[in-house]
Each structure stands twice: as C-alpha cells, then as structure tokens.
Amino acid sequence: MKVLKKPEFEDDSYLIEADNFFMSSDVIYQLAEEDPYLKLKLSKFLKLNVDPDEFKSFKDRPSLRNIDEVDKLVGSIYTYSAQDRNDMTYGSIIKNAKKLLSLSSRRNYVRICNSYKDYVESSETNLDVSCLSNIHYLKDRVNLIFRASDIKNELFQDIITIYKFFIYPVYDNKPITLSIYTSTSQNVEYINELISKINGLTEK
Predict the structure, then answer these.
(1) How far is Cα 115 from Cα 32, in angstroms, rounded to an integer?
(2) Which of 45, 130, 134, 174 makes an SS bond possible with 75, Cβ 3.0 to 4.6 Å?
(3) For residue range 29-50, what is the model confidence (pLDDT) as tens digits?
(4) Residues of the chain predicted below pLDDT 50
C-alpha cells in the first residue's frame, strides 16, 4: 500500500492505494485472535448486530466516547447500514455486486452514508452515523470513500472488516487494487505506521 496523497494536518484528506490486495480468511482469523476490538467488530458485522453494549469496554476510543448514550450502532455496523440505506438485504447486495461486476458496470456503487438530515441530527443527538460513505466496485478495483477516518484507532479495523464482508465475497479470492479516499482524517501522524501495518499483512 502506498500514499498517493498524504494528510498534512488534522481533518485533511488522503488517498492511499494498494495493488494486488488480498487477505486470506486465515490471516483475518489470526488478526481477530490478536485484536479483541477487531474480533468484536467482525462478529457484529457477521450477525448484523447493532446492540452497543459489548462495545462499552472500548469506550476509550474516540468513536465510542458516547457509547453509553447510543441506542443502536446503525451507522458503524456497515453490513446493517448497507441494508438500511439501499432497501436490499446484505446478501442481495453482494449477489448484485457480483452480477454487475460481470457486466463491467460503472453503476456498481453501494451507498453506506446517511442522509444529510441524519448528519445534522447527529450533531445535536447521539445518533450513530457512518464514517464510510460509499463502496464502488469496478472490474479489478474497489474504491472506498470515507467521510471521516481515524487513522490511529479505526482505519485498520475498518479495512479488515470491509474487506471481509464487502470485497472478499464479491471477487472470489481474486486480488484487487484497493483505493481508499477520505475527505477528513484524524490522527494523521499515524499514516506511515498504518501503511507499514497493512503492508505487513499482505506479505503474509
């Protein structure tokens, strides 16, 4: 993975990209065993479980600072968010993503982001809104577009969970080019550390 556009200050944008990106299920399983937070997120994504209670032990993370006041993680559990925002089950989204991929369609574009009304409301309430905005599937490339991205505390786990549930099942073990663009980023000083960590994974 390489940095094409580096974030220089808090809330700056960035663009990172990896060619021939692939992670086996064994590698993901190993990572989950080493990282309790990742393990929990993978379990929640698998079950589409938006109950916040199990995340309360991780409230030291900035994204979970208000977890005690959150009723449901409707924005953070992307398998649930994808269903909610696209009027289609998660399984149907994956099935249709594969179908449109076979047609080389540029319209293979899954919305994860909330409505603007939700984002406005979330500034005054504890409504859980999505940091991931969209997933764009192309012939041998996936573009992930984030509204916001905490490089230190969330991005690594986001990449793993999104890959596991939205990329791996669509491309059937095929390596892809993975591009990640973020409109605003936090903890930008950790970008090089994150890149090294991801590069270490793809070499396993």
Answers:
(1) 32
(2) 130
(3) 999 999 999 999 999 999 999 9
(4) none
Domain covering 2-202, topology: Thymidylate Synthase; Chain A (3.30.572)
The tokens of 97 are what? 């993503």
CB atoms within 10 A of CB 157: 20
Q: In angstroms, rounded to a whole number, what is the distance separating the alpha carbons of residues 14 and 3? A: 8
Q: Which of 7, 24, 25, 1 is nearest to 146 (CA)?
A: 7
Tokens of 64: 């979970």
Q: State the sign of the Cα–Cα–Cα–Cα dihedral 135, 14, 76, 163.
A: positive
pLDDT in the model for residue 204:
52
Domain boundaries, the chain: 2-202
Q: What angle do CA 91, 94, 98 make, to 5 degrees?
A: 140
Query: What pLDDT digit, counting tens, does each position of 98-115 carry?
Result: 999 999 999 999 999 999
160 touches 46 (CB < 8 A): no
